[in-house]
């Protein structure tokens, strides 16, 4: 049996043991509080237990739990003894005790903040980290999701947090002081022993011991984020209710709290400007909620912004659209320019001297990795179909010689980006011309009749490179051919729903009609006016002219998805000649195109 741990001890001021943060003796006396007493007693008792148990057979640890969230939650609520914790985590009990109570379980290092001060990171050793990771998997299943919480929650991020406040007229931002260290052992113990979980006290102590280091949540442990969110549940509920009653929106990302409104002013119950000092002051009601929940506001990181000023949430601009700061954008352009002008080695040296010495104390990451990460963050915030992101990414690809993840065209993709997914086909003398387009998955398609000649592919307006076209496969009945070129396809289309095509569906035909040097991609808009079969193959006739040179081009729906390929049309726009046919396309989708074959 595991050792008993007693809970009836009190600090020498007589304060009660397991209490809520509001009444905890931790913040009310400087003497040894009950949380420290329990932690010390727990460590001593388990040390004796391990010593008396003899040599521990340490079993190898698996890294994940294979149960469903529902099963994990049920098992967590049914915990009755420390041994059942080991069963839940799929670790032999003696092995769990050995790794949990061994010395030097953590390694500390310093991480420099933007302000120049240092943050202490306590990283658990690998065995303990695996144990904590398993427990965090259980706690995430128990916690579920809260609409106002965006930090350390699956499917949410700083972007989803900022999006909730988009187009606000006023916003209040403030941080919590010493967020993780404020959540001490006693609070974690009370979390598991109190409502709504009501676990046995020895189980609660054991769980708290897994989560805490030196009496509080360590910055760097896998369990700290989810435990912090669970501890903050009451805080979130109270601030959300207050914000809602004032016509505001409340969100929290870890220790970063934002309250915004689209009204002409923030309610005085949120904050108000001091008439004498002209400074914004957070309301007493919010301060009281913070105090009752055991947190303090960091005054140096408290700010109120109106629509006429720069409004940010978790570092993202929210005035009219989600955006990065101008400083960040300029830094990206500066890094690319330095690489293009001086080469990668000198660019890395300049970047390290200017920026990295403030953050890294020893070896810094590779310059190209830093740059690529910043470009991807730019695309994450603005959208990966954003034209500035595409422009920056293509400059990076040209310098690095690497192929990044392609950009998949979506409903809001800018026209300049859509053009880059469409390729011009022509023979050596440019007497015969056509169009091709890239599809998600890195495949290039055109009309089969375009491939009767030796072809070259290029993207006029973007570069002067020409690539020799190789035919992968062709289907003359459907008039579809798959081709390939010795180049990465940076921008690609997605397929639409062919089964949703009906008469009067709006479409766009893209391509290079009657191409002349330096012409850009042309777009012709219209509707489907008739369904017709040629040689038993379904075609859709459109009222937008498909002109010579358009053949092989994509036919797009209203969401910029490919639903067909242009195959028949006119020699001269608006004029049906003797050898012309009505403008039509063949519907294509994932199930109708020829299967991919390797060559």
Q: What share of the residues does DSSP label as strand, in percent? A: 15-25%
The main β sheet shows up as: 7 strands, antiparallel
Q: How many H/I helical runs? A: 17
Helix proportion: 25-40%
Alpha-beta content class: alpha+beta
The oligomeric status of these chains comes to single chain
What is the 3D form? elongated
The separation of the N and C termini measures 66 Å
Number of E-state strands? 25
On the 0-100 scale, what is the average pLDDT? 85
Model description:
This protein is α+β, with helices and mostly antiparallel strands. 31% of the residues lie in helices and 21% in strands. The protein is built from 17 helices and 25 strands. The strands form 7 sheets. A 7-stranded antiparallel sheet has the order 16-15-12-13-14-18-17, with no helix packed on it. A hairpin with a 2-residue loop joins strand 9 and strand 10. Helix 15 packs antiparallel against helix 16. The termini are far apart. The N terminus is likely disordered.
Question: In short, what is this structure?
Answer:
The protein has 599 residues and is α+β, with helices and mostly antiparallel strands.
Write the layout of secondary structure elements.
Elements (H helix, E strand, L loop, with lengths): L33 H19 L16 H9 L4 H7 L4 H9 L4 E7 L5 E7 L1 H18 L14 H6 L6 E7 L2 H4 L2 H9 L7 H11 L12 H8 L1 H13 L3 E5 L2 E6 L9 E3 L6 E3 L1 H9 L4 E10 L5 E2 L2 E2 L8 H17 L1 H11 L12 H16 L4 H14 L6 E2 L6 H4 L3 E5 L6 E7 L3 E4 L9 E3 L8 E2 L1 E6 L4 E5 L6 E2 L13 E6 L10 E13 L2 E6 L11 E3 L5 E7 L15 E4 L12
Helix pairs in contact: 1-4, 1-8, 2-5, 5-10, 8-9, 13-14, 13-15, 13-16, 15-16
